[in-house]
Amino acid sequence: MPVKETPAKYPVIDTDPHFTRVVRYMRGSDYATWAGATAAGPGLFWLYEKVDPTKASKASLRSALRLTGFLGFAAGFMLAYQNSSLRFWGWKENAYEVEKDQKELSARVSSGQPIYGETELTPYLQGVASRNSTFSQLKLHAFPW
Length: 145
What we know:
Blueprint: H1 19-24, H2 28-51, H3 58-88, H4 95-110, H5 123-133
């Protein structure tokens, strides 16, 4: 089953990129977004506590700050991952990623490896996996799969 064609302003690299590939292609701005979201969670919680104190114990405040730090870290990662995926789909400027992809794929071809690796899945299961994961990054906010 062919992948649905979507209008893209920039060249499409891959409509269903592998997780490790998306993370390897992250830019510095993605890491800055991730770090900002990680710091924003406890920072906002601390600010709210200063504005309207709950008079909770220091131990419970530390636990709450740790929890908001973890939630900020997870949310920041998902936002950075989604931004990197948007560049794979051609929905954001992706000149750097296109160049890196060309180098990576030409190196695989010149060494005699298959471009996208080998699989042991049947064609039917490949289709099922593709239908379940293509454009799945658009729903990270609702269902972080």
